[in-house]
Specification:
Elements lengths: L1 H6 L3 E9 L5 E6 L10 E2 L2 E4 L6 H13 L6 E7 L3 E3 L2 E3 L1 E9 L11 E7 L1 H9 L5 H14 L21
Parallel strand pairs: 1-8
Antiparallel strand pairs: 1-2, 1-4, 2-3, 2-9, 5-8, 6-7
Length: 169
């Protein structure tokens, strides 16, 4: 993985969005000691996929390591991120985005994370407008909004069945 980051080679990663029963999303703040985007907010959990590891396995592993959760994951979409440079590394990732709905208690890894917070959609929209959220997290939240047809800045609305197609005359 170090070679990929050093040379800017495309590599595989996962991200998981943890949604609570009340609709709020768990967002983590990265450790200030991390080499990549230290002290910035990002998705509920993120990580690289190891050689020979599936996206789903990596997502379950990262969820357990970072938040102490073991819950059902729903695959959402795959996101091809552009190169992002920082602190001598280049992230160039294909990220498989998952979500999970759970109210299980969190067990935050104090080495990787400085903490977590629950954000409702309006708070998340304000976070996305600022500079405290990592650029890749912003891109993936936009993809999540597209994949789920819910804009982060709007209140949740119930989506009804599709309207029937009009008949041609």
């Amino acid at each position: 993985m170090e070679k990929c980051l050093r040379e800017g080679l495309r590599h595989r990663a996962v991200a998981v969005l943890v949604i609570r029963g009340d609709g709020r999303m768990v967002i983590q703040v990265r450790s200030k000691n991390d080499h990549w985007q230290p002290g910035r907010w990002t998705l509920s959990c993120t990580g690289h996929v190891g050689a020979g590891e599936s996206y789903a396995h990596a997502a379950r592993r990262e969820l357990a390591e970072e938040l102490g959760l073991n819950s059902t994951l729903v695959p959402l979409t795959k996101v091809f991120l552009p190169k992002v440079r920082g602190r001598g590394s280049v992230e160039f990732e294909v990220v498989h985005l998952f979500k999970t709905r759970t109210d299980a208690p969190l067990s935050v890894d104090p080495v990787e994370l400085d903490g977590v917070r629950l954000f409702d959609p309006s708070e998340l929209a304000r976070l996305m407008e600022g500079r405290r959220l990592t650029p890749d997290a912003k891109m993936m939240l936009r993809e999540y909004a597209r994949a789920t047809r819910v804009r982060p800045s709007s209140r949740r609305r119930r989506l009804g069945p599709p309207r029937p197609a009009r008949e041609k005359r």
